[in-house]
Records
---
Amino acid sequence: MDDLLSEFLTETNENIGIVDAALVALEQNPDDGSQIDNIFRLVHTIKGTCGFLGLPRLEAVAHAGENVLGKIRDKELDVDADVVTIILEAMDVIKELLESLEQTEEEPDGNDANLIARLNDVAYGTSSATSGDASNVVGLVNEVTEADLEAAFAAADGPGEDAPIEPIISTEVRPGEVSEADLEAAFNSAPGPDDFEAPVLEAEPIVEAAVATIPKADKKKAPVTDQAPKETSLANQSIRVNVELLEDLMTMVSELVLTRNQLLQMVRGMDDNEFTVPLQRLSHVTTELQEGLMKTRMQPIGNAWSKLPRIIRDLSHDLNKKIDLVMHGAETELDRQVLEMIKDPLTHMVRNSADHGLETPADRLAAGKKETGRVILDAYHEGGHIIITITDDGRGLNSDKIKAKVLENGLATESELEAMGTQQIQNFIMRPGFSTAEKVTNVSGRGVGMDVVRSNIEKIGGTVELKSEEGKGSVFTIKIPLTLAIVSALIVECAGERFAVPQISVVELVRASTDGRSDNTIELINEAPVLRLRDRLLPLIHLNDILKLETAADEVAEKSEVKGDEEFIIVTQVGAYTFGIVVDRVFDTEEIVVKPVAPILRHLSIFSGNTILGDGSVIMILDPNGIAAQTGENVVGDHRFEEEMRKDTTENDKVAMLICHAGGKEPKAVPLSLVARLEEVDVDTIERTNEQMVVQYRGKIMPLVTLTDDAKVAEKGRQPILVFTDNDRTMGLVVDEIVDIVEDHLNVEMASNVDGMIGSAVIREKATDIIDVGYYLQKCFGDWFSTGETAAFGSESSSQRVLLVDDSPFFRNMLVPLLSVAGYEVSTAENPSEALEMREAGKAFDIIVSDIEMPGMDGFQFAEEVLNDERWADTPIIALSSHTTPQDFDRGRQVGFSDYVAKFDRDALMNTLSQTLRAGGGAR
Amino acid sequence: MSNYDVQEYVTVTIANQMFGIPVLQVHDVLGSINLTTIPLAPPEVAGALNLRGRIVTCIDVRKRLGLPARDDSGQRMSVVVEHHGEPYALLIDTVGEVLNLKSEQLEMNPATLDPRWREVSSGIYRTQDNLLVILQIERLLDFAGNASAAA
């Protein structure tokens, strides 16, 4: 039997069982919303799959049933016994159809128009009036005795003979409600088709009676037909085993392995004896047993994808679209349990991408795209997770449509929507009961789907992310934790302890020494170890340092660092950050099953789990993300670390700083957010015009400035520059060397009286000058801010008064010059109290820019304070914060901030300032 | 009838002091163990060990009770208990016997007892030759993160 079909049968039978039970539960408790959602989803799934397998009868029945359920879900229809009965009836019909499908691999002929009509009656309100006057029919059917049935089966030789009989009856009767067997029986016992036809047409109430006879009939049928072997063979092909049972087996096998190892150890000490051979066999069998058991749990993700090409093919026919399905990483192994859980969501999502996402060929051509749309599936391991992305190059999500739909369904109010980002709005598609498809097709558009997807994935601790650009397409990213999965790990030793490093994050291994004996030497820059690795400098981390192991054993530390013993460097990549972990020894790789660490140790972000090695010892698994985080590097996509960062910022702002050398030995730093690009230009291309160094850059002339007047441009070769951009203007700052980008607390400790420097701060334990970009911008273009956009409002009022409230001297220092050159008159306050003192002193401002995180009174309280007093109540306040989550935006708006700007987004601040002021302060 | 309730305790010795652990909470008693140390873990966590395929976190009860580390390198034993579905091995010196003790004979902790002991002990029994300190497993395992959160 077709794999697809047999899987469908198993799955659908299970689902129907659940629906049956759930329906009964629903009848008892009609207000249980989750129950109806669940039923609706399952029926929807059945219907959907039927459509793709080309089972029109099943699909039609399920579709009609779903209509009724949809009405119930939307609360347009009350749950009562009649409604439940008719849905159960539909389920029974589906069950019967499935049965015959299992035997013949084909849907029996016939149609269920009557049942469907009645379902539709229920769904669309016209009451079903057919329940009466069927008593005579009941009588008729009751006459069909078991004996008759038996006789009928004995007479019937098999499916071959059934075929001609069936169509005759089924055209007139509704075979969906009465099983094939009953039909046969009825056919035989009834005087003739003509007499039978009329009463059965109105026979709904008897159906249950008829159905009740089916099980008996089936039993009898089995021995006499040749369909029996098929059933059994299907049942034998696969069985469902409780995962817990597998888990138990796994544990036992692990123990077996340990015992085997012990035995081997014992025998190894002895000379040849009678145990050697049997023990070898035991060893062999154990290994195979272990491998086999592992295999039962692991499956390539391709298994979950195998249905997809067909689904896409059928879909492209149904929808008249040209669709190209591309699959990468099908061999990525997943734990069986996880795979089961994501199978349906994946199918849903791919279907959605093809149906909603991709446009029709005509639309695509009109939009200048290729006629054939692409849906790309990709699976890979990344930092302790399995990532699956589903990308389509279709129309993307239309935020306006989603907004309209959100309003229509009452999921949010207009003002709430107003405050949301595009991403948030797009995420509405994952709410229950939401669909942007205008037409409810039988493919999709009923608003089940994305919420099923999300709930299923969240059940296993995963996340779904959605990125979409209108007109370009959408990307769904599913992230599933690896907790259950098997990984290959490198076993390393450090200070006498062994650790496992997931092979996924290991880029390469380098052998190095500290005394220059081998090709690779660890060098120190101010005690920070680095390694020259081909064309770049690799920052190194000593594992014993971050694990604080050397303090416990000085001896070991001596051996690993000072004595210049050989060391191994594991070159690791986390996101875009590559670094080396220095360890003492590298053993082998081993396949390990990641187990979560005990709750007591969960806070150690440096371990992603632990496991038991083949020799029975417990080993900790290092998490490269955690290590990177420990060393202060911002790791993209690591939520744990982001959270930590956020925690940090509440106390002290961490800023990404670009460290460079320029004019002088001291390192210089500039906030990374101000830098547009890092470039290297060929020195020969630097020209001079009007006493000013310039280069042609992207078709324009870009002036270059040096940090100090006496700083020199390199003689030849390539000159690194930092590019700053604003509107159409671009400036290059010449530096000697770009060293690094660090994330650090920024605390300007000494203000500078040198032009061009804000002051000095300690960054990475070194005194570093902070470059005042504003100064150089001004130096380069005296008119940087005074023309263009800003001039427009500048002319309205000669100078707008801005009050800047921020506890960080750095930001005050950075923003004041920026704001002043932009034509504002700036006053600053270190904290809200100081600002309120200014109010008491009778000062007035056109606009207030305030930080949120401040010691004492925070920005929110400050805003409330300002609004509560009429003197400043009309002054718009702009919040400035490194917290730019939607909740913060919401809160900010609630307390009365006119706008909310990310702290490092200079452009946004400038725009917001001018816009808010232009709106006349009454925008609030 | 709680007056006549009889509780069974496994007695263990740590630094010559006898302790009692409710027998129903004891899953296993381990002899020689192969500990894997866990760097950066709270000091009370001695490491992790493999118990028939399960990873068990090992707690150094001496550290927990503020006792000095053991100087001799004799065989260490441990008692495996379960807390919130997670197995923990309590590192002890020796295991004694199982005693049946009447609940009514349980006496309050003396006020002079070290607060660290008071925190984990539910009371004292007077046996013939010894005083038996009853350990409360939940309290014993409630340290580091949990303890500070509760404080």
---
Amino acid sequence: MNRTSQILTVLAKAVASALLASAAQAAVLPAHQTSSSWYTSAASDISAKAMTTPRTGTAKNVILFVGDGMGVSTLTAARIYQGQKKAGNQGGEENRLSFETFPYSALSKTYSVNQQTPDSAPTMTAMVTGVKTEDGMISVSADSIRANCESSKGNELVSALELAEAKGKATGVISTARVTHATPAATYAKSPERNWEADSNLTAEAKANGCHDIAYQLVMTPPGDGLEVALGGGRSYFLPNTTTDGEGTKGRRKDDMDLTSQWTTRFTNAAYVWNAEQFAAVDVATTDHLLGLFEGSHMQYEADRADDLGGEPSLAEMTSKALDLLAKNQNGYFLMVEAGRIDHAHHAGNAVRALADTVALSDAVAAAVAKVNLDETLIIVTADHSHVFTIAGYPARGNPILGLVHDPDDTEIRPTPSLAADGLPYTTLGYTNGPGAKNGPRADLSVIDTAGLDFMQQAQVPLGSETHAGEDVAIYAIGPGAHLFQGSVEQHQIFHVINQAGDLGGTKY
Amino acid sequence: MLRSLLTATSLLLALPAAASFCPDQPATGSWGLSYQLDNNGQRSGTLEILRHGSDTALYNPDRQIGEWWVLADSKRPRFHRLFGEQQRRIDYTTGDLRALGVNVNIDSIESFAMAPLLSHLKAGDAVADCPAARHYSGEINGSHYEVNWHSALKLPLLLETRKAGQVRRWQANALINEPTVNQRFGQWLDFQPTDFADIGDMETDPFLAKLITQGFIEHAHPTAYNSDGTVISSEGDHAGHGH
């Protein structure tokens, strides 16, 4: 049966199914039910879903988006946050982030070999190598001992990015955190310690046994012919400690190496940029290897990006330019894009910055979808782990997501806030632990702008830094192989979907 | 330079407007003042304020902990917490400070939070034996203040607060010279740095884990350390609680 007849058959089945369902409903459901806008919109969505056929071909290209710390509550709050900014919104709850419209999704179990609640190192290792490992380890197996170089020798894992390089594809990593941070690092580096980002972080044992820092590995010992794109923060990890960069940050390297200049000399048609103006001027037609390091450490939060001294591109802008460059390779590409600062804002107990960065990730995904051919490109959007971030109380529909909880009053929002047992109002968004907790009575929030950019949500358990959470995170997917994400999956299955859909050769299926 | 005048603590307690120490304006951009801290007449510690160009640091030499503000770009302040015993440093970017809700007031940082409060106090005469300093006194938020303010240094030479029977006194007693200040800042540059944003992902680091669980890395408006070496809150609360 050829592809056209296959499609016609599926269509016929879907139409028949929809007609049958419609007839059955007409027999038993009252008109005020079937004419409800809730009913008709959902019926329309399901009809469309019934006509969806999996893309079973090979994914020439793979884009893996990771929202660091982007748990399900973050997605819900971010969609409302974005929705409430849209003109003519119906409260904001009806909104969808760009990737929430993808046809396939699953829940991902994030535990690591040694922890119920993991950090980004073992989770990203799982996603890009197919093997869970222990916390703090970057693409080496759990047979290694954390921060022990010798133990990691022989236990290195091969990542999807490396397989793509071996297939002659173009590869790239983008992060709003440092490009040497755990999530991007797991794609191109091996390290028993995630903090070995510069040589100054290496222990004597690590140096003696031949382990190299992560920045060094990106530039000096990269997979294949080197990554074509590396964009993000972390400039100080690439510069000697005798230099100060254009934004006043000192380098961290003690080996006197300038890895930015190494990048431009080691690779052909290579470019290094460190601010938005230089980035905008990059001509992808004449550039084959692009390194952009826009901050000494992590890039700015999206909410602060416009105020950056040197200027930084958005995650969407970096994604768009990276795709233009990677698409020059006829064999296809593998690109990892991380919204790395969702996690940091949550750790600081500052929800609004986490939500703004989540929306920035949504914008980046939308930019990618607009640019690629989905018949040959698998796009996956997921998170590495969650945070103890909650959406609480019984706020009315349309109640400002960053505001105090106001109960519904029939069709209106009650003007006075709901009060807790201590007689004080409380916000919809909060944290189970973190810096927002106080020893003693809660602050009275009735005179505080809880929607302010610098507002810190209240928390229950006092900790200097809010923590990750151990519940599952979501996976959204579209393109060839996306249909393999269904139900509850182990996080390390993500690699196997990439490997199979992209025919990367890591395993035969 | 230094003009040491009165040294008897008992006399100072009796005459808060009198000066025991009256420094001239340093000729260099790197200098500092050392303060003796007393609680109810009992010596409780030492605190230093250090200036290094546009940078200001508050340092407790007894406990080797400090706060270092980088204020060259007033719109983009940066901050470091210093832990000398462990040779560690926590770095806060402007974005970190904003996310933590820290409202940076440079006048406050550079003056032990006193400069913004002076307008709420009654100005008196020049301090005896130290014409560069003026005496201020008054009530703020239930605390009584006695301050000898050095207008050229923009720092108090004496800061005494009384609240609910508690008397706290900060008495400047020495000028810290340029080589010492430069040595301090140079030493801190060599401390092992950790970005504040990374701390949440480094709970297995024993030092950072301790800081997290003790809540030391908190969202308080960092201003100075009290006599116990813990952070005191910002303006209007010199006699207040530690975080």
